[in-house]
Design brief:
The structure is a homodimer of 348-residue chains. Chain A has 348 residues and is α/β, with parallel strands linked by helices. Chain A has 13 helices and twelve strands. Helix content of chain A is 43%, strand content 15%. In chain A, the strands form two sheets. In chain A, strands 2-1-3-4-5-11 form a six-stranded parallel beta sheet. The radius of gyration of chain A is 25 Å and the shape is elongated. The interface between A and B is large, with 50 and 50 residues. The structure holds a DNA duplex (30 and 30 nucleotides).
Chain lengths: 348, 348
DNA sequence: GGCCTCCATGAGAGCGCTCCCACCCCTGAT
DNA sequence: ATCAGGGGTGGGAGCGCTCTCATGGAGGCC
């Protein structure tokens, strides 16, 4: 490994000057700068990251907290891959790397039965690695830990869970607007009995989608019926069960808005099991636009989220807080309705 | 941040002793060790990772190289999430974290038109961050770069691409065995005209699956027909096109083994477009067991890979090389056939 | 021409840890 | 009693960088 000292000696300057060339090039005279840059290139020198992190007490790494839901072992993020892609490319264009942190579920494997997510542990990791900031992916069970971390004042951006702090903000889809649009679309197709399958209690996107459902009904001049709001948990099973329950009513809905595609698929299966045709007898709209949505039969009309947008928005907000100061407003990503076959009335 | 010096002062020992307690506890007398451990716990002290990495020239981080295929922008890993989960938990149980490295596609965004994956860049990153090792995920376009890195002598494990070096090995499924099992299953169902849709040239798993196809035919006593081996590229489109071509023959196959689930789905669509029923007129088997495989209609019989196994096997091999010395033999993960509806003759 | 300012650079003290080497003291052998 | 041996500990020199402070020289101004 070639060090700054070697470059300095070969250039006949001090290490301080080499350091300046890499950190505040404007303060170095043009001829010196060019000489150092040339030699550095020839020797393939770049500053050692560990030393740099130690010295400036800040590394070029962003921590990523991605845990699985302790209460639902089968939990998968609906679009982790796109999210990572977006994050990675946005961060790397500013010279940052992503450090995937070991999380409480990993620790639990070692010492079973112990502790949920520990915000202190996140703070400690951040400090020990001199992380520039953290991206927190909601897993459904560590929202409180995230909130506590945000209070520490270390820069962080949470995804799909609201946090606040001096250097904390969050990114989420405009869930309410997306849901409202879905419901308005169903109403425009002539449906008057529109039910919804909600996400789990305490989950912010789920609550917003329910709110959007209500807003959509209001916009279409339709009454709200409490018995058309059925609680689910985002998983397919709950969509199936919830739909079966709805269909058992004396006046079952003719359309349903599910707060996740998984639940929408569950609803599809329940409709099939009840001998109903989709969309002729029941229109279904989901949320997320997961990969399978286009492949199920009938293909699923759904509210698409801006998947890579999560990554780039998170990266942008985080880098802003790292380099400047104030925490920006939470980011609300626009959604858009993708009309496929499951809602009927599609043009194609 | 509390440092080792503070702990040392509070204990009335030297920093060297504190360091020993954390690195080679056996060399410290029991009373001293316990005293230091207690105080460290009370102050919530753990060694700063940047300083530690700088000093021992080795960090507690494993680099992860995950690039998208430059030739196919839409490329997604079929099971990245499970793989990461497996990797993360195995590594974190040994105290390591995963550093998601910026890769050539990210760099390309910044300086368009420049350079493919640069093995030198990987070596440089590894050195600069004092990474303990690298996990290399095949993206279809940087196999050569991986090979070059492996030669550098730095510890690394590649996934689904063969590499060799003093501290390099790789993990892959037993693709040939899996493919052979699929073909034997089709033969056992009575099929005599079994075609295959292969993966891209130069891709090791693809080649192994083709080899397994041939082995399966031989085991069943069926002849090999060159015109039943159609080249694809793992993507759905190529499965559709390839299948259409096969069905246009005077004696079309009655069964097809696709080297990926995506291509199998393409084949399903081609069969439907040709007015054929699956599995009655055409039996289809895929490979991977991606999430959608169970959801398409008819549900897809497929060769499942051990998804989290990739992660744990890679972690195991890498940690071995980091702590001991010799590179272990490549790991061949077993596959298993999941019989669903698309091949016909299922018991259920 | 003298004084002040400002720009470019060098010297060197950390950052927090690890690890080599030296030291001390307690045993046990001679 | 002397000395070799060894376990336990402290001192301190790095690891490679950044950043503050000091220095020196070039220029601007009256």
């Amino acid at each position: 490994m070639v060090t700054a000292r070697e470059v300095a000696q070969l250039c006949g300057v001090s290490v301080a000057t080499v350091s300046r060339v890499f950190n505040r090039p404007a303060t170095v005279s043009a001829p010196t700068r060019e000489r150092v840059e040339r030699v550095a290139r020839e020797l393939d020198f770049s500053p050692n990251e560990s030393a740099r992190a130690l010295s400036r007490r800040q590394s070029a790494m962003i921590g990523l907290v991605w845990d699985t839901d302790h209460r639902r072992p089968g939990w998968r993020h609906p679009f982790l891959q796109d999210l990572l892609l977006g994050l990675k490319s946005a961060l790397s264009s500013h010279g940052y790397h992503l450090l995937l942190l070991a999380t409480s579920d990993d620790a639990r494997d070692r010492t079973p039965g112990v502790s949920l997510a520990d915000p202190i542990a996140y703070v400690g990791m951040t400090r020990r690695h001199h992380l520039a900031g953290l991206v927190l992916i909601d897993s459904g069970s560590d929202a409180e830990a995230f909130g506590a971390f945000a209070q520490s004042g270390l820069p962080c951006v949470a995804l799909d869970v609201a946090v606040s702090g001096a250097k904390a903000t969050y990114v989420t889809s405009d869930n309410a607007a997306g849901a409202a649009e879905a419901v308005r679309h169903l109403a425009a197709l002539g449906h008057e009995r529109i039910a919804t399958l909600t996400g789990p209690r305490g989950n912010a996107p789920a609550a917003a989608r329910t709110e959007g459902y209500l807003r959509g009904l209001a916009a279409a001049g339709l009454p709200v019926r409490d018995d058309y709001v059925v609680a689910g948990d985002f998983y397919r099973e709950s969509g199936f069960v919830g739909m079966r329950r709805l269909l058992a009513r004396k006046d079952p809905p003719t359309a349903v808005f599910a707060a996740s595609d998984e639940m929408a698929i569950g609803a599809l299966l329940a409709a099939r099991a009840a001998g109903l045709r989709v969309p002729a007898d029941l229109a279904v709209v989901g949320f997320d636009d997961i990969e399978v949505a286009a492949l199920v039969d009938p293909s699923l009309t759904t509210v698409a989220q801006d998947k890579p947008g999560f990554g780039t928005a998170a990266a942008g907000a985080l880098l802003g807080m790292i380099e400047h100061a104030a925490a920006p407003e939470p980011v609300l990503l626009p959604t858009h309705l993708i009309v496929r076959d499951s809602c009927g009335g599609a043009k194609r």
